[in-house]
Specification:
By secondary structure, this protein is mostly helical. The protein contains six helices and three strands, in the order H-H-H-E-E-H-H-H-E. The chain has one domain. The longest helix is centred in the N-terminal third of the chain and has 39 residues.
């Protein structure tokens, strides 16, 4: 007595799907990281407008002389680093640049605005550190990044998806004041 067992597999189809997945994954991550960069720009602007630095502390007050100058010019005296709007206006989503494998850099678009930002961030006493992020911001952006990648990966309908998501859960950022 003999038994013939014929097994048909879709191994070629699965292999093709994994190959496609392997070529698409880096693009998904790069797109997610760039979106995270846009989100960080928005967060920096929002916090600065509220007068809060990236460490969630209120900005140091302006000097009395500077407050008098602002009052003479009819400008608000709230410490929000907003005088003409040019400095934060130069921190645009278009300046979120891919600077390496799965990395983006945020920068200001004009040298004059870089100098203002550098003055506020580093050289003025007291410093008003607005350009950066803390662990709270990192967690918020990381969560959005992971949701984006998960959504993109669901398009592949792979059973290994959960395992892959845990391995790519990271947020590589390079945030610095670029001197042009």
């Amino acid at each position: 007595m003999a038994v013939n067992l014929n097994i048909k597999t879709n191994s070629k189809e699965i292999s093709a799907k994994f190959k496609k997945f392997g070529s698409v994954l880096p693009r998904i991550i790069d797109k997610g990281v760039k979106q995270a960069g846009f989100q960080l720009v928005d967060r920096i602007r929002t916090q600065t407008k509220k007068g809060i630095d990236f460490k969630d502390r209120r900005f140091a007050p302006y000097s009395e002389g500077y407050i008098k100058q602002l009052q003479r010019e009819g400008k608000p005296t709230a410490v929000d680093l907003f005088y003409s709007g040019r400095m934060l206006g130069a921190l645009t989503p278009s300046m979120v640049k891919k600077t390496g494998k799965h990395k983006v850099t945020l920068a200001f678009s004009r040298k004059e605005e870089i100098d203002k930002a550098f003055f506020n961030q580093v050289t003025t006493d007291p410093q008003r550190e607005f350009f950066g992020f803390n662990t709270k911001t990192e967690k918020i952006i990381n969560k959005a990044f992971n949701r984006f990648v998960e959504k993109e990966l669901q398009k592949f309908k792979l059973w290994v998806q959960e395992k892959i998501l845990h391995q790519i859960s990271y947020l590589p950022f390079l945030v610095y004041l670029a001197q042009v």
